[in-house]
């Protein structure tokens, strides 16, 4: 039972960090111009829909 508790806690931490990293990357992509986003195959609307956090630093 102890293994399952720690495995579950670890999996939740990893999932939360993945979501945080995705929001950070989407926020960084928001600084690109529309032509660059189009070349990458995405748009501002899609990034906003996925969730984007803009960081000042």
Overview of this structure, please?
This protein has three helices and no strands. With 57 residues, it is mainly alpha-helical. The model has no long low-confidence stretch (mean pLDDT 88). The longest helix has 28 residues. Helix content is 74%, strand content 0%. The N and C termini lie far apart (42 Å).
Present the secondary structure layout.
Layout: H1 2-29, H2 34-40, H3 44-50
Major sheet details: none
Mean of residue pLDDT values: 88
Broad structural category: mainly alpha
Beta-strand content estimate: under 5%
Q: Report the span from N to C terminus.
A: 42 Å
Q: What's the helix-strand series?
A: HHH
Radius of gyration: 16 Å
Number of strand elements = 0
Low-confidence stretches: none
State the assembly state of the protein chains: single chain
Instruction: Give the number of helices.
Output: 3
List keywords for this structure.
57 residues; mainly alpha; 74% helix; elongated
Short description:
The protein has 57 residues and is an all-alpha fold.
